[in-house]
Amino acid sequence: MNFPAIRVIFRQEMARFFRTFIESLISPVISTSLYFVVFGAAIGGKIDLIEGVTYGAFIVPGLIMLTVMTQSVSNASFAINFPKFIGTIYELLSAPVNYLEIVIGYVGAAAAKSILIGLVILATAFFFVDVPILHPFAMLAFLVMTSISFSLFGFIIGIWAKDFQQLQLIPLLILTPLIFLGGTFYSIDMLPGIWRTLALFNPVVYLVSGFRWSFFGTADVPVVFSLLAIAVFAGACLVLVWWIFKTGWRIRQ
Amino acid sequence: MTPIVSVKSLTKTYSTGFKALNSVSLDIMEGEILALLGPNGAGKTTLISTICGITKPTSGTVTVGGHDVITDWRAARQMIGLVPQEVSLESFERVHKTVSFTRGLFGKPADPGHIDKVLRQLSLYDKRDNKVMQLSGGMKRRVLIAKALSHAPRVLFLDEPTAGVDVELRKDMWKVVADLRSQGVTIILTTHYIEEAEAIADRVAVINKGEILLVQDKADLMRQMGKKQLRIDLTAPVSAIPEKLARHNLALANDGSTLIFTYDTKGERTGITALLNDLQAAGLQLTDLATEQTSLEDIFVGLVKESA
Predict the structure, then answer these.
(1) A166 lies in a domain?
(2) Which residues of B touch A95 (CB under 8 A)?
(3) Model confidence pLDDT, tens digit, residues B204-218
(4) Do the chains contact at A5 and B106, CB–CB below 8 Å?
(5) Which of A42-46, A139-143, B112-116 is least confident?
(6) Residue A34 CB partners (closer than 8 Å, separation 6+)
C-alpha cells in the first residue's frame, strides 16, 4: 500500500474543505436551520405527533440524511472531476498509486466531510428541538456507512461526467427526487396504498428508515433491510469503481 | 551498458482508430539527455505518456530501470518524473504544498528539506508560500518541474518544456536541464525547436507519424552539419572540371554551369582562397557565389518529408 499517497490525497481534499469553510460547513448549517424554522416550528406545530415524536424532531434524521447524501455525492464527484477538468489528473495516472489508494484518499475525505457536516447539523438541531438518540452507535454507524457509500457513488459520477453540467445531472434528476421521496420529511406509512409500495423500491427509504430507527426506535422497514440495502449499494459502487480502474474507462486511454 | 529506459516494438492505437505509435523501439542510456524531435502530432507525447503510464500500450513493452511498466508498474513509476506539456496546476494551492503533494503520491515520506532544496534549485524558494495563481507563466512551468523532481526521480520526462516560453526563460530552462544532468538525472525532452535539441541534447531522436526515423549522437549530427558548400555559378558552362581545379573537392551541377565546392568549416584551412586563385588561373568567369550549410533543420525536414 502506498500510504503516503493516501495521506496526501486525503489531506489535500480536507484542506480544500476548510479553505472554503463558509460554503462547506456554514451553508449546510444555515439551510438546515431554515428547514427547522419552516417545517419544524411553523408547519410542524400544526402536525400531530408521528410515531410518538414531534414533527420537528421527526425530521431531524431525514434532514441529516438529505444533507449527508447530497454533500457526499457533490464533494466526491467534484474532487475527482476537478483534476480531470484542469488536467492535473496526469499526476494520479503517472504516480505509483493503485485504484484502491486513490479511492480511499478521495472517498475517505469526502465521507469525512459529510460525517462532520452531519454531526454539525445534529448539533444545530439540538438548539431547536429535543431529539432522543436511542441507539447512538447504530446512528453513527448509519451515518458513516451512508457517507462512504454515497461518496463512492459521487466518485463514480465524477469520473463519468465530462463537464460540470453532467456533474449536476444525476444529483438533480435522480438523487434529489429519490431523497425527497425517500421519507426524509415523512413516514412512508403516511403514503396512500400504491405509493407506499412504490416507495419500497426507493433505496433511500431504507437508509432514512434505519437512521431514524437509531434515533426513535421506530422504522418504516426492518433495520436488517436497511443494513442490507446500504451494504448492497456500497458493494455495487465498489464493484463499479474497480471496473472503472481496471478498464481505465474515461480516465486512461 | 544496459539502458535505463527501453522501449521495444511499442504500438499505440487509440480507440478512435488513430495509430499514434507504430512499432517504436528506443533505448535511453542512464545520464544522457535525449531530445525527441518531431512536428506536431508526431507521437512524442503519446510515447512519453505510454512510458509514464498515462496511456496503455496496444502492444510492445517498456521497461524503466529494468521494471516493466505494466507488470511491475509501481517500481517503474517510482523512478520517473513527468513534466507535462500543458501547465496543469491547481490555482489555489500553495507552491510548496503542491510540490509536497506529488512527493507523497510517489510514495515518499514527507521531507520538507528536500522540497526546499528542489525549490531553491528552480529559483522558486521565495515563492514557496505563494498561491500558484499568483505566479507568472514561466514560474508555473518551474513549479511543474519542481513537482516532477519532488520524489528524486532518476528519469525525467519534459514534454515541450519551452513551448510558448520567451527566449530568456528558455535559456534558463536549458540551464536547469544541464544542472539536473550533472546530478545524474536522465532526461528525455520533446521539442519541435531544433535549436533546443542542438543546445542541450546528447542524442537526438527524430519521430514522425508514430515512427522513429533516426536516433543519433548530436556530435555526429553536428559533424554532418559542419560541412558547407560553396556554389559557384559560371558565365559559360563547362563540360568537365578543368584540370587546374582537379585538386579541389569539386562537383559539377546544373549542366556544368555550376561548380559545387564542399569544405569543412571546422578544418584549419577551408581552401577557398586557393580555389578562387585557381579559378582565375583557369580563366573561368563567375556570375555568382553562394554558401550553404546543412543544418539539423535540413536533416530533419528531409527526414520528415521522406516519411510523408
Answers:
(1) yes
(2) 77, 102, 105-107
(3) 998 988 999 889 898
(4) yes
(5) A42-46
(6) none
Backbone angles phi, psi at B192, to 5 degrees: -115, 10
Cβ contact B82–A90 (<8 Å): yes
B141 contact A CB<8A:
no
Domain count, chain A: 1
CB contacts of B86 in chain A (<8 Å) are 87
All residue ranges of chain B with pLDDT < 70 are 224-226, 266, 294-296, 307-308
List the one residue out of A10, A44, A32 whose CA is nearest residue A151: A10
Q: Provide ipTM, 2 decimals.
A: 0.89
Q: How far is B172 from chain A (nearest CA, A)?
A: 25
Helix (H) or strand (E) holding B68: strand B67-68
Point out the domain boundary residue: B186, B208, B223.
B223
Residue A162: domain span: 3-247
Burial class from Cβ neighbours inside 10 Å (0-12, 13-18, 19+) for residue B15 reads exposed
Q: Which three cell numbers stand for residue A197?
A: 409500495
Q: Do B272 and B174 have their domain in common?
A: no
Q: Between chains, do B74 and A96 touch, taking CB under 8 Å as contact?
A: yes
Domain assignment present for residue B161? The answer is yes
Q: In terms of domains, do B265 and B196 share one?
A: no
* Same domain for B263 and B155: no
Residues B66 and B30 placed together within one structural domain of the fold: yes
The continuous run of DSSP H or E covering B204 comes out as strand B203-208
The cell numbers describing A166, all together, are 453532467
End position of a domain, from candidates B223, B255, B274: B223
On whether both B141 and B246 belong to a single domain, the answer is no
Q: Give chain B's domain count.
A: 2
DSSP letters along A211-235, please? HHHHHHS--SS-HHHHHHHHHHHHH
Which of helix, strand or coil describes residue A98? coil
Which residues in chain A are contacts of B74 at CB distance < 8 A?
2, 96
Residue B204 has φ and ψ, to the nearest 5°, of -125, 130
B102·A94 Cβ contact <8 A? no
The reply to whether B157 and B190 lie within a common domain is yes
Contact B58, B12 (CB under 8 A): yes
> Which chain B residue is nearest to residue A90, measuring alpha carbons?
B54
Contact A94 B88 (CB under 8 A): no
In this structure, which amino acid lies at residue A150?
Answer: F
Q: Closest Cα to residue A69, out of A23, A114, A124, A21?
A: A114
Contact between B105 and A8 using a beta-carbon 8 Å cutoff = yes
Domain range enclosing B189: 5-223
Q: What is the pLDDT of residues B132-188, one digit of tens each?
A: 999 988 889 899 999 999 999 999 999 988 877 778 778 888 888 888 899 999 999
B53 and B123 share one domain: yes
Find the residue in B nearest to A19 (Cα): B92
